[in-house]
Protein: Phytanoyl-CoA dioxygenase family protein
Amino acid sequence: MTATSPGLTDRAPLADADVDAFERDGYIRLKNVLDPGLLREREPEITTKVLELNTVHAPMAERTTTQKAFLQVGNLWKHSQAAHDLVFSRRLARIAASLLQVDSVRLYADQALYKEPSGGITPWHADQYYWPLSTDRTCTVWIPLQDTPLDMGPLSFARGSHRFEFGRDLKISDESERALQEALQREDFPIDEAPYDLGDVSFHLGWTFHRAGRNTGTEPRRVMTVIYMDADIRVGPLVRPEQQNDLDVLMPGATLGDVPDTPLNPVLYP
Structure:
């Protein structure tokens, strides 16, 4: 990707090779997409809101696997202007539309994912398991709010796994970690684990299998994510309870067959 002025609204041109790589691999890592200073300015407010809205307070030893993996706060854009700035970034939304090869994208949800020091692994999983949507034209941008070396547990991807149908019925869990680790190794999927510099981001498709290691560092791994969907996507079919929950919480008022044009799902680009 060509380096450009890394603001929140200006255009970040993608090469055709970037779009091809995303379609081939199911994800792409992009360097210098956002200005590090811009992220440093917004991180304290975002972190304050995450800690305020977080509902997991048990000692690490008493938590579930996913609670050990991260503190998770959704719809943060409604509570923080700094989060709103990232979620509504036209620069990021334009990249998402280009990678998905759609004319426009709307917001599915945002999530802050904070992996505390001594936090556990994020098990292998595919996000689309949870999403009550009619197609796979969805992707997530992963935005670290600090440099993220390997010891902090950056996101890693199984290259090409968006075309691998095994494990799509597994929610994130100890079981998904064991079963997918074995299956991905057996099928010889290359695993891409790399650190992120502040300002780097990655985008991955909904069916791309990914995980993150433990945070063995001394600082929390602070990350914002934005999930984009084709603006013309529709709700359904619903095949598991988790999808009904997402529909009720993240797309209130939308019903089966609807375009989820709700106040929580605005069009972000164009």
